[in-house]
Amino acid sequence: MEGLFDLEPAQAEERFVALGGRPFHARIARERVLAGGEREYAGMTSLPAGLRDRLGVQLPILVGAELGRRRAPDGTVKLLVGFGDGVAVETVHIPSRTRGRGATLCVSTQAGCPVGCPFCASGKEGLARNLTTGEIVEQFLRGLDVGPLSRAVVMGVGEPLLNVENLVRALEIVRAELGIGSRRITVSTVGFPDRVRRLAAHEPRFQLAISLHTVDQEQRDQLVPAMAGIPIDEVLAAGDAWFEATGREVTYEYVLLGGANDTAGHAERLAARLAGKRATVNLIPYNPIAAEEWHRPSRERVDAFAQALVSRGLVATVRWSRGVEGDAACGQLRLERARA
Fold first, then answer.
1. pLDDT digit string (tens) for 264-323?
2. Number of neighbouring beta carbons within 10 Å of residue 8
3. Of 156, 165, 265, 268, which is most buried with the most CB atoms under 10 A?
4. CA angle in degrees (0–180, nearest 5) for 77-82-87
5. 186 and 228 in contact (C-beta within 8 Å)?
6. 135-145 in b/e burial notation, b at 16+ Cβ within 10 A?
7. Backbone torsions φ then ψ of 128, nearest 5 degrees
8. Alpha-carbon distance 154 to 136, whole Å?
């Protein structure tokens, strides 16, 4: 079903008029949702009662329904949101470790994922469809209902650059009307070179993360099947082009898979390929999925990999994923429901 935030403001005004309202009623409703926290027209007493009833049926604010909620011991909250055609997506509210700061929201862009990384829960059931602009915005509204937000990462289910038009429209609403600035929004992609270059032309520009996982071509073809045949050199060149066009450094994400891509040799080759680039490497120890062949490396092995990069002049961070204790890490709740 089409929702309020699937429409541009001018389109929403036309729809409100068609339902018996006035153009300014659409502006009031939008402000009450984005700035006032309303989630139902019923509470908007400045709108005519009959219009509120018709809007609730024909142009809802929230088109999805919460199918599940899971809270991990560290405070991370994962929401499973289902839409009318039977698809479900995940949204994760990750509290800050710094007192007084709002949380980070991890949002999805597709129901399922076509990339097919064998270690990732998000794509185990394949791709159902792209999310609409309104469905992406809805995740932010539901996240705000859990608690205040200060940052957002587009790192949930799906490949963002395969749904870039809807994503950019949604993030513009988030930036302009929810107040999360573009420098506090990171879009994570496997790095389709042409799409990375096109995204660099969009204004405003968001932060970019490219999921690399290895610099050995044969291994990357296996770990990121949708990128098979696309040379790593082209991915890195697109990252360089991004920095030249935007002035913003790329973060290269690297999921550490115990015994697969976490050796000293992998670290040396990664450091050599990224030498001299304006970039950060974000190391992510693997999130275990039940009955999978992959496993999480030890903390000592992770620290050694990070130190090997730093000693060769790279900026490297380690992100121990939040929510793992409650199966709230990315893709797991949706996969659990699908398999059930």
1. 999 999 999 999 999 999 999 998 876 568 999 999 999 999 999 999 999 999 998 765
2. 11
3. 156
4. 125
5. no
6. bbbbbbbbbbe
7. -90, -55
8. 10
The verdict on domain 72-339 having CATH code 3.40.640.10 is: no
Query: What percentage of the chain reaches a pLDDT higher than 90?
Result: 86
Q: Tell me whether residue 330 is one of the annotated catalytic residues.
A: yes
Alpha-carbon span 89 to 110, nearest angstrom:
8
Q: What are the two backbone dihedrals, phi and then psi, of residue 256, each rounded to the nearest 5 degrees?
A: -85, 115
Q: Which residues contact 322 (CB under 8 A, 6 or more apart)?
A: 72, 74, 76, 92, 94, 328, 329
Q: 319 vs 9, 216, 256, CA distance in Å?
A: 38, 22, 11
Query: Rounded to two decimals, what is the model's pTM?
Result: 0.93
Q: Which CATH class is domain 4-58?
A: mainly alpha
Query: How high is the pLDDT of residue 326?
Result: 46
Query: Given 90, 138, 159, 253, which residue is catalytic?
Result: 90
* Residue 90: active-site member: yes
pLDDT of 112-140, one tens digit each?
999 999 998 887 788 999 999 999 999 99
241 burial type by CB count under 10 A (0-12 exposed, 13-18 middle, 19+ buried): middle
Q: Where are the domains of the chain?
A: 4-58, 72-339
List, for residues 141-192, the tens digit of each pLDDT value. 999 999 999 999 999 999 999 999 999 999 999 999 999 999 999 999 999 9
- What digits encode the pLDDT tens for the residues 215-238? 999 999 999 999 999 999 999 999
CB-CB neighbours of 158 under 10 Å:
29
Q: In whole angstroms, what is the distance from residue 296 CA to residue 288 CA?
A: 7
Which amino acid, residue 230? I
Which of 106, 117, 120, 330 is flagged as catalytic?
A: 330
